[in-house]
Amino acid sequence: MARKSILEMNAAGVWELLVQKAEKKGRTRAEVEEVMEWLTGYTPEQLREQLERGVDYGTLFREAPEINPRSRNVTGSICGVRLEEIEDPLTHAIRCLDKLVDELAKGRPMEKVLRVGEPGTVEEYLAAQEERIRPYLEAVRDAIRQAIPQAREILSWGMPTYRRKGNVIHFAAAKNHVGLFPGDEAVAFFAPRLTGYRASKGTIQIPYRDPMPLDLIRDIALWSWERDGG
């Protein structure tokens, strides 16, 4: 007999396994329900109704009221797979719940599990920065998006990130500079054009000053995008 995929499994059975995993480590069913509500929008009552209907696990997630867009900011590995590399929304949501319950079972505080206080979008990330540096960050963002408009923009590792098959390029605010993170190969390739900038271990530090090297940033982003597509 062919083995069932997790999508075909009875949702109530899978749910009880998740609850048991948390309870064995001293957490509660109510906490797992709180995680589920944050991720899917199901209230405990709505969740109970679905489980009592006997739906399969795939249906439980397909019929979720609303998958939290902040779930795309949950990073790390679960079951040997990195969350940020999962493109399919259904699979991502399922594995995200696994990851959140795993964090809960390992004793992480609930506010950390639910990413309380963390920006959920790039817009929120930018809005949280000092007013004096925000225009420089917005200029870097615009340059990257102009160079690789097909990229998926997310927050990963707490900073704006642009993805194709994997992470193509990141940027982040520092006190006196924008940190650009295209990876070691890009830094090596563009070394002749990086005179005057600190660069090491896949990172380029671009001071907050006018004019910003937007052509250089666009070229690095495009080069990194093309390398990721190979």
Total of DSSP H or I helical runs spanning 4+ residues? 10
CATH topology of the largest domain: Helicase, Ruva Protein, domain 3
Query: pLDDT under 50 segments (min length 5)?
Result: none
Radius of gyration: 21 Å
**The level-1 CATH class of the largest domain:** Mainly Alpha
The CATH H-level homologous superfamily of the largest domain: uncharacterized protein sp1917 domain
Query: How large is the share of residues in beta strands?
Result: 5-15%
CATH architecture descriptor name of the largest domain: Orthogonal Bundle
Instruction: Outline the biggest β-sheet.
Output: 6 strands, antiparallel
| Strand segment count | 8
Tell me roughly what share of residues is in helical segments: 40-55%
SSE arrangement, N to C: HHHHEEHHHHEEEEHEEH
Average pLDDT number: 92
Class from secondary-structure proportions: alpha+beta
The neighbouring-strand order within the major sheet is 3-4-5-6-8-7
- Shape from CA axes? elongated
Distance between the termini: 38 Å
- The figure for the number of domains is 2
Note the topology:
Elements: H1 11-23, H2 29-40, H3 44-53, H4 57-62, E1 77-78, E2 81-82, H5 89-105, H6 110-113, H7 122-127, H8 134-147, E3 152-156, E4 159-163, E5 167-173, E6 177-181, H9 184-189, E7 198-200, E8 203-207, H10 214-228
Helix pairs in contact: 1-5, 2-5, 8-10
